[in-house]
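Task: encode each sequence below as structure tokens.

Item 1
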Amino acid sequence: MSVFDVAVIGSGPGGYVAAIRCAQLGMKTALIEKYNTLGGTCLNVGCIPSKSLLDSSHHYEDATKHFGEHGIEVQGEIKVNFKQMIDRKAAVVDQTTKGIDYLMDKNKIEVFHGLGSFIDETHIQIEGEKKQTLEAKNIIIATGSKPGTLPFIELDKERVITSTEALKLKEIPKHLVVIGGGVIGLELGQVYRRLGTEVSVIEYADRITPVMDAALSRELMKVMKKQGVKFYLSHGVNKVSRKGKEVTVTATDKKGANVDFKGDYCLVSVGRRPHTEGLNAQAAGVQLNERGQVEVNEHLQTTAPNIYAIGDVVRGAMLAHKAEEEGVLVAEWIAGQKPHIDYNLIPNVIYTWPEVAAVGKTEEQLKEAGISYKTGQFPMRALGRARASMDTDGFVKILADAATDEVLGVHMIGARAADLIAEAVTAMEFRASAEDIARMSHSHPTYAEAIKEAALAATENRPLHI
């Protein structure tokens, strides 16, 4: 039987990063993955493939709608080769997962393929091509999440689908009905809208992206409406049925009336749930809560002291970079270090175009907590860089403490917001004030200037360019 210092169950961003950090710290490390490829949901059927399709569809939209204005003339009809688009996505995924294989070899991490389940708190059974057992002093659960659904919906994975199937369709839908106005539904909805699909988003709440600042929700919906996406807010779905190639989604609107939406595909994107099936956690004394999450303390230890859990399988936002930070934290804690994560400073991003990004508190949270704050906001359309690229939608909003000027939250929608949010995270990590950001030099012309201008607006209400 192989004996390890640490065994990691699950090879998504949290799991493989935890394994690498453990190996860097001198621990003999094993990584267990039930699928044939490493990388988990994010690399195989999540972040990476969805961004590949978002970028491909964005190029197509630019070619059909914006090239002419840029003075680029294309001879003949521009067509979508959907198979090539899907094939390119698959190639990106393949290249990325092979990169994880390389990192495992480089760090001398032993990889086991098969379903890992607990025998007891130090022994794991692996059922793959052959049945194996390994022993580990410490074990990290990083089994991630899977798409959620509603109890009355039968996912046939042909016409009533999750994000997994939406990333590998054989045809472009005529009408895609999306249940859920969150990140996944909006990103994939935008992919197919660009390719000519009629897209209807049905959301139970009174706004899309309900966990984000309300100003971002309003602006994103306004922009996506201009792009042709239809939204039906305050609609509770109560039935999904399929007849041949037609799917009917029945929802109740805010007046209590039933409304039918008919499409050839229905994307169910109502969040994700922890994936613990087959883990046999109880055999190791690991406790799950009523939501199926693994219970952990502030050090991400489970109810079995030598077993830890990270990422989507524990409480908190289901984000790849949050899982990575937790993987590093657990590895360093096992090694006797004193790591720390500030969960308030984990950024959240939606990769639509314009992109949406946020870190820290929303206005709604500050109001609820009774914290006095001031706001500075600056529109992207006022930037020379935005006009030059024709990406003028969106804004940057900074929330700062009314008394101390410390930045409490930064919310942005616009071109490259996913990258720009790193400036806000850095500033808030060092407890910067809005004035600190306002006094920093930002290169011109860039989208980042909107952050400086919003900070000026929050500090003394004196933005320079509006």
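Item 2
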Amino acid sequence: MSFQAYLDTIEDRTGMTPRELLAVAHERGLDAPGTKAADVVAWFADEHGLGRGHAMAFWHVLTKGPEISAKHVGSGGPHADASTTLWLDGRATRPA
């Protein structure tokens, strides 16, 4: 599954765009120094029934922003992303 596909599924399951979830994470202090990925994993599992893979994709965005490695961009494989920049404003508004 691509990074973007993880984010799209997170949006489907939570009803919030990745950008909205970043705001919630900030309100909860999950972007503070010393916060562990396990805190996001627990949040996603407890409140949204999402697994570790989804939580870790979100953790990447939370800690590193929307830029990802070009390793899988355009590779055509199951983990291929269309761009090195993830779309955080929701599936419905993503440019074609």
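Check on item 2: The mean pLDDT is 94. The chain has one domain: 3-89.
End of task.
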